[in-house]
Amino acid sequence: MNTLLKDKKILIMGVANKWSIAWGIAQSCIEAGANIILTYQGERNLSNLKKLTADLAGISLYQCDVTQDQDIIALFHNLEEDFGVIHGLVHSIAFANKEELEGAYYNTSREGYHLAQDISSYSLVAISKYARPLMKEGGSIVTMTYLGGERVVQNYNVMGVAKAALESSVRYLSADLGPENIRINSISAGPIKTLAAQGVKGFRSILKVYEEKVPLRRTVTQGEVGDTAVFLLSPMARGITGENIHVDAGYHTMGLL
Ligand code: NAP
Ligand code: 1JT
Predict the structure, then answer these.
(1) How far apart are CA 118 and CA 229, in angstroms?
(2) Sign of torsion, CA 69 116 63 234?
(3) For the chain, which ranges sit under pLDDT 70?
(4) Which of 32, 53, 166, 174 could form a disulfide with 121 if both were Cys (CB 3.0 to 4.6 A apart)?
């Protein structure tokens, strides 16, 4: 237990189940004394979340599909009424059609491109707009990215291009929101076995490279990402905005492996 986020209200979007990176972040936030608010997309996730949070006091759950403007508007309207203020926001949401996460990038369909951009990148822009009025005491926004947004990583394809847009959005939003003492940063996590990663072509061989070649000779955990998120959400990171922090056991420092 620590007090880095004592009594701070942190909204976390993107918990699907206990393997979600967002759930790792939620646990680290709770350990740091935060009051957390979670959003879920559909009824299936609501029952998961109810089970996950059954033993934890004071966690509020709200529905929000980020492709729906009316869901985003209703979410922040309800948060304004129920809490009046939030101090932190975690965006841990992405989607792309599985068949577009393999083969040549030029085979990406127009529809698949738009879908990946809408859910994985534009959603951060819309959410930041509506979170801003609630961050009356200043705030910190954290989003999740992957190295495939900066470099060519085989198979990451349309998600890589969506992550590049997401990372650029972080920089533009940092300029918009900085004067109101709202910071925004991304965490570039190494590969972690989650629902999203399941069934992704070549994922296992990427994990193997981590164990054999990266500086720390291992993969990273949801808990390690969670602790970095707590740092970024806390006053310890008060001078940091528009930044991308790699939590990837050092993989990003390496040349061709
Ligand atoms: P995850 O548990 O599957 O989380 C993805 C979340 O996005 C799910 O909760 C999913 O909800 C949500 N989502 C998708 N479409 C949505 C929509 N329209 N509205 C609201 N929520 C929606 O997988 P994860 O690995 O933790 O991914 C979280 C973030 O980490 C993503 O941005 C991902 O790119 C990033 N990341 C992951 C890795 C990795 O190796 N796992 C590495 C680096 C970065 P549903 O389940 O209901 O669709
Ligand atoms: C999505 C998926 C977003 C998998 C994701 C993701 N962000 C990171 N990963 C894990 C990953 C995926 C690939 C990869 C390396 C890591 C699945 C669909 C929903 C959005 O390739 C090198 C493909």
Answers:
(1) 23
(2) negative
(3) none
(4) 166
Task: Give residue ranges with CB within 6 A of ligand 2.
Answer: 94-96, 101, 146, 153-156, 159, 191, 196-197, 200, 206
pTM above 0.85, yes or no: yes
At 54-90, the pLDDT tens digits run 998 889 999 999 999 999 999 999 999 999 999 999 9
Give me the residue spans of the domains in the chain: 9-247
* Predicted pLDDT of residue 235: 98
Contact predicate 184/140, CB 8 Å: yes
Give residue 94 CA to ligand 1 midpoint distance, Å.
Answer: 5
List the structure tokens of 218.
């291992």
Strands of 14-127 (E only): list them. Answer: 35-40, 60-63, 88-91
Tokens of 25: 């972040």
DSSP alpha helix (H) spans, 21-68: 21-31, 43-52
Q: What is the pLDDT of residue 45?
A: 82
Q: What per-residue confidence (pLDDT) applies to 256? A: 85
Q: Domain 9-247 sits in which CATH superfamily?
A: NAD(P)-binding Rossmann-like Domain (3.40.50.720)
Q: For ligand 2, pick from 67, 157, 200, 225 the residue to mutate: most ligand atoms within 8 Å of CB.
A: 200
Residue appearing with tokens 């940092």: 174
Which region holds residue 155: left if phi is over 0, alpha if psi is between -120 and 50, else beta? left
Which residue, chain included where needed, has tokens 């005491």? Answer: 137
**Which one of the ligands is nearest to 25 CA?**
1
